[in-house]
Amino acid sequence: xxxxxxxxLAATFxxxxxxAGETTPPEPFGPxxxxxxxxxxxxxxxxxxxxxxxxxxxxxxxxGDADPDEFCPEKLDAEQWVRTxxxxxxxxxxxxxxxxxxxxxxxxxxxxxxxKNSKWRDGKGDVVGDLSAAAKKYGLKFGVYLSPWDRHDxxxxxxxxxxxxxxxxxxxxxxxxxxxxxxEDGANGGxxxxxxxxxxxxxxxxxxxxxxxTNGLIHELQPEACIFSDGxxxxxxxxxxxxxxxxxxxCMIKGKDFAPGKGDGAILNAGDPEGTxxxxxxxxxxxxxxxxxxxSQNDKVKTVSQLMDIYYSSxxxxxxxxxxxxxxxxxxxxxxxxxxxxxxxxxxxxxFAFCLxxxxxxVEATDVRGRRFSARKAVDEDHSTYWCTKDNxxxxxxxxxxxxxxxxxxxxxxxxxxxxxxxxxxxxxAQDADGSWKEIAxxxxxxxxxxxxxxxxxxxxxxxxxxxxxxxxxxxxxxxYCSR
Length: 484
Ligand code: FUL
Hints:
With 484 residues, the protein is α/β, with parallel strands linked by helices. The protein contains 10 helices and 19 strands.
């Protein structure tokens, strides 16, 4: 009896002042990410490794005719790569197991054109195996790039080649997994060695590979693996190789309009607010001008500040970043690349080391769905909780007052994307000593993450106004930082 009374009282208290629905989360809006995509969004930044016979021939696209003996990275040390990747603050690594030249960096049972027929380590070497083991040892996620275009193999262009491709992707996942991402490159078709026939071969990019079957196989073998290609199915290309996604970046596109090597670059860059499928953007860029190592580019390694700009225009706009670091002829990252990456790792840590949220004394919002979704949920440390307004309230303001005056120059905002991407525009203002509000920044989409950097602002209060949203805003994080 006593228990029943307490429960009744508690229920009355919780519901007091609320109408039904205020304590239930909003319905998902539009396309939403799958479990594997949600995990991918948390990965943020990872490394790309481009290595093959090209490295020894000073080439970007090998013709497919190099002798396996030319592949000879005498000092190859995958742990050196992985240590550097970790020091740069990256969470994973993807390797070109086979690039367009067709040479396989693992001893595949489905071709002779691989490390097993190279004099490197007497044919006993296995670059993919070494890297997968090093990644496990150091706690990095691991992924594979298997070029759909193969300029070496005589089967390329025939149905047999599709079996070959599927056998190899199966072999890679089974022997070296778990993999978090599989990269299906769009570059395709043209001239090549093709078993010595040295000719031009053209395929139909939309039909030749029968991608739905291959992708189904990958997902069956490795349900956690996100598949990257120009148009997904899980992750899309950002439309350029220069290191940026659109200032406005929606995670949605109409997947049916795309295939590897086929699609509208502008849509890939910005996404499509009316898109029917959740296919977020990945920004792929190299630390050097080329994807492969070239001695002539040793003095063209991107600086810490260039890498930071790329970080803000990729991760900072809600995309993921895959940064390529090509090993040299010895099979090692060059000193210049290591120096830049270590510096970048330190800079990244310093950038967000000093969070000011613990100094917030009061958080108010112009609308709150219910106590479970209070304004405070946006500034707590828990990414899984969020501030949310009532249905149909699509504009709102969140005001944070600090205990004492603080210096702010960085911000991070995140939507709770499990319920869809909603916000179209927002602005940030700081309160002046005289009580008036001054605009500090404004931007469009938020999505998984939006990073802002601005000049030092000395203030006792900041407010964020959602000025446009497709449905009630659902915000999991609003973090303020002071970077020195
Ligand atoms: C492109 C390829 O042609 C380049 O060689 C490189 O692998 C890059 C990541 O993708 O499409």
